[in-house]
Amino acid sequence: MHIYTLQEGRKLVNAARAAIELRIKNPMFKPDIVESSISEFDEKTGVFVTIEHYPTKTLRGCIGFIKSEEPLKKTLVQASLAAAFEDPRFVRISGPELDESTIEVSILSKLEIVDDGEKTRLEAIRAGRDGTLIEYGSYSGLLLPIVAVERKWDSRRLLDETCAKAGLPKEYWKQKNVKLYKFQTQIFREDAPNGKIIEIRL
After folding, report:
1. In a domain, 74, yes or no
2. Is residue 189 a part of any domain in this protein?
3. 118-170, pLDDT tens digit by residue?
């Protein structure tokens, strides 16, 4: 996994906010305006953008890409706009709402498949370090590593909740025909709306 500096993380978070602000002001704006401001980010990697109300930390939008064939400069802008305007759980974000929200960018490592077997899977997953992806047929669910940290879950609870996110019964991760993947993230976040950008270390 490529490790980004705090300065680079700040550029990514600022770009995410800029893309959302520009879309609010002009629905016809061209994303390449923002992409050009982070033109050096050519790595092809997964990224998620999370929007939270401040200071309640209530989720306002979260969408991303597990992996991408596009460079990060494009994927980040796409994820930012999707989190703000296309998350099916929420209405489109407005300017006043954005002014009361923080932006978080999570850059994903490559997925690593976890072998079958309940014991093996429990030992392989470490809550607070790993994010999880469950796939079974047309069902899939993903939880970022920070979710387990914020909710104080252990590995078993993380796996159960990933199944629930996929629309599957909890404990379904024990089934051999269910694919389980793990990954890590590097996280950059505003500490207040449009405020100081910090790196969150899990």
Report:
1. yes
2. yes
3. 999 999 999 999 999 999 999 999 999 999 999 999 999 999 999 999 999 99
Q: What are the CA-CA distances from residue 52 to residues 61, 114, 202 (Å)?
A: 7, 31, 18
Name the token pair of 23: 């879309």
Residue 134's φ and ψ, nearest 5 degrees, are: -110, 135
**Spacing of C-alpha 151 from chain mean position:** 16
Cα(155)–Cα(145) distance, integer angstroms: 11
Q: Is 193 helix (H, G, I), strand (E, B) or coil?
A: coil
Residue 193: how many CB atoms within 10 A of its CB?
17
Directed axis angle between helix 72-85 and helix 6-25, to 10°? 50
Residue 1, in any domain of the structure:
no
Whether the model pTM is above 0.90? yes
Q: 64 is in which domain, residue-wise?
A: 6-109+185-200
Place of tokens 């879309």: 23
Cα–Cα distance between 180 and 193 in angstroms, integer?
35
